[in-house]
Amino acid sequence: MTVIVVDVETDGPIPYEYSMISFGAVIVDNDLNKTFYGKLKPISNKWIPEALAISGFSREETMTFDEPKKVIENFASWISNHAKSRPLFFSDNNGFDWQFINWYFHYFTGNNPFGFSSNNIGSLYKGMVSDMFKNFKHLRKTKHTHNPVDDAMGNAEALLYMKNDMGLKISLK
User: What are phi and psi of 83, to 5 degrees?
Assistant: First the structure.
C-alpha cells in the first residue's frame, strides 16, 4: 500500500455548490519528500467569505488559479508515478477532505485512483490509545498553517510516529 495523506482547503462546505481552492498531498515514507500542491480555480459562483478566508486567499486570487481538470489530471499522474502499490487516502478530517477529492476525481476524470474508501488519522489514533477523547495533533512536527502541504505534512509525520513509535502495523511500501 502507498499511504498518501491529503489536506483540502475550500470556499464552502460541499463540493459542486462550492469549490476546492487548494489541496496538498504527502506520500508517507521515511523521507516524507514526495509532495503535491494544487491550486484550483473555483467551479461555482457560490462561496462563503469566512470559509475562503481560512485558505489565506482572496476570491480574486482564486480566480487566477489553474483549471481544476488540469490540476486533478496532474494529481492522478503524480499518484500513478509515485505510488508503488495501491494508493490509500488518509486525512485528519476524511469526511470533509475525501468528499472534495472524490467528487473532483470523478467529475473531472471519471475515476478516483484511491477507490471508494478513506481513512481518518484521528479515529485511528483514538483506537490505538483506547480513548475517544484523545487527539493525535500533538504528534505533528510541522506547524498547522492551513497551507495544505504543511497540514498534510504534519499529519503524515503523526502517522509515521504512530507506526515507528507506537507500533501501528501498516505497510508503507
Answer: -80, 120
Please determine, looking at this structure, whether the domain spanning 2-166 carries the CATH number 3.90.320.10. Answer: no
Q: How far apart are CA 86 and CA 80, in angstroms?
A: 9
Q: What is the pTM (predicted TM-score) of this model?
A: 0.97
d(CA 93, CA 91): 5
Using DSSP, state whether 59 is helix, strand or coil: helix
Regions of the chain with pLDDT less than 70: none
- 151: its cell numbers: 497540514
Supply the pLDDT for residue 161: 98
Return the ∠ at Cα 116 (arms to 43 and 8), rounded to 5°. 40
- In percent, the amount of the chain with pLDDT more than 90 equals 97
Q: What are the angstrom distances between the C-alpha of 53 and each of 46, 59, 70, 73, 164? A: 14, 9, 24, 26, 36
Q: Which grid cell sits at 155?
A: 499529519
- At residue 173, the pLDDT reads 77
What's the rounded Cα separation, in Å, for the pair 4 and 95?
16
Which set of grid coordinates corresponds to residue 136?
493525535
